[in-house]
């Protein structure tokens, strides 16, 4: 394995998922847990931008790096959503759409790879917006309190539903692109 900075950032994001569960579930004081989970998630989410940016900037984009990035994103989001569902802060329907899309896309990527059609499952803009909305919604839901005059829980729920809508849209876009190339 190449221990480049982008790959190390993705590995950090992978390792953050179980750590996120610990900082959210273990503390006795829920306010401390909320703040710690919010901060940790924001730190991990920021590495999603930086690993890709650095890899492109120093020309270190690799198939391993792409896989690590994909796995890290999925593990981080699914872990966060499960924790938030358990805390009754995330709407079940939105989580089902988001996780269902991720499972379907993983299966689709596997099928496409086996059939030599990997160019039809490239990242599209709506997929990036979906990820951005998810990464924005989750910290609001972890914080779950008032921030200035803002009810972060309400904002987080709204953003998560928007991310769920984009999840369905991006999934349909990928499926349509695959169908057209079939």
UniProtKB/TrEMBL annotation:
<dbReference type="InterPro" id="IPR004570">
    <property type="entry name" value="Phosphatidylglycerol_P_synth"/>
</dbReference>
<dbReference type="InterPro" id="IPR048254">
    <property type="entry name" value="CDP_ALCOHOL_P_TRANSF_CS"/>
</dbReference>
<protein>
    <recommendedName>
        <fullName>CDP-diacylglycerol--glycerol-3-phosphate 3-phosphatidyltransferase</fullName>
        <ecNumber>2.7.8.5</ecNumber>
    </recommendedName>
</protein>
<keyword id="KW-0444">Lipid biosynthesis</keyword>
<feature type="transmembrane region" description="Helical">
    <location>
        <begin position="156"/>
        <end position="179"/>
    </location>
</feature>
<comment type="similarity">
    <text>Belongs to the CDP-alcohol phosphatidyltransferase class-I family.</text>
</comment>
<keyword id="KW-1133">Transmembrane helix</keyword>
<comment type="pathway">
    <text>Phospholipid metabolism; phosphatidylglycerol biosynthesis; phosphatidylglycerol from CDP-diacylglycerol: step 1/2.</text>
</comment>
<keyword id="KW-1208">Phospholipid metabolism</keyword>
<dbReference type="InterPro" id="IPR000462">
    <property type="entry name" value="CDP-OH_P_trans"/>
</dbReference>
<dbReference type="GO" id="GO:0008444">
    <property type="term" value="F:CDP-diacylglycerol-glycerol-3-phosphate 3-phosphatidyltransferase activity"/>
</dbReference>
<keyword id="KW-0812">Transmembrane</keyword>
<keyword id="KW-0808">Transferase</keyword>
<dbReference type="InterPro" id="IPR050324">
    <property type="entry name" value="CDP-alcohol_PTase-I"/>
</dbReference>
<keyword id="KW-0443">Lipid metabolism</keyword>
<keyword id="KW-0472">Membrane</keyword>
<dbReference type="Pfam" id="PF01066">
    <property type="entry name" value="CDP-OH_P_transf"/>
</dbReference>
<keyword id="KW-0594">Phospholipid biosynthesis</keyword>
<feature type="transmembrane region" description="Helical">
    <location>
        <begin position="32"/>
        <end position="54"/>
    </location>
</feature>
<feature type="transmembrane region" description="Helical">
    <location>
        <begin position="7"/>
        <end position="26"/>
    </location>
</feature>
<dbReference type="InterPro" id="IPR043130">
    <property type="entry name" value="CDP-OH_PTrfase_TM_dom"/>
</dbReference>
């Amino acid at each position: 394995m190449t221990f480049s900075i982008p790959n190390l950032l993705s590995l950090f994001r992978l390792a953050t998922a179980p750590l996120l569960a610990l900082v959210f579930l273990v503390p006795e004081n829920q306010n401390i847990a909320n703040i710690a989970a919010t901060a940790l998630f924001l730190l991990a989410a920021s590495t999603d931008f930086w690993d890709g940016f650095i890899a492109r900037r120093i020309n270190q984009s690799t198939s391993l790096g792409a896989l690590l990035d994909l796995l890290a994103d999925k593990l981080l989001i699914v872990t966060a959503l499960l924790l938030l569902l358990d805390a009754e802060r995330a709407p079940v329907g939105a989580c089902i759409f988001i996780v269902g899309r991720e499972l379907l896309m993983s299966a689709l990527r596997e099928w496409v790879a086996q059939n030599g059609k990997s160019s039809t499952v490239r990242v599209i803009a709506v997929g990036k917006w979906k990820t951005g909305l998810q990464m924005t919604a989750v910290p609001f839901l972890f914080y779950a309190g008032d921030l200035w005059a803002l009810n972060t829980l309400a904002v987080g729920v709204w953003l998560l539903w928007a991310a769920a809508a984009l999840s369905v849209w991006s999934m349909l876009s990928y499926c349509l692109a695959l169908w057209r190339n079939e």
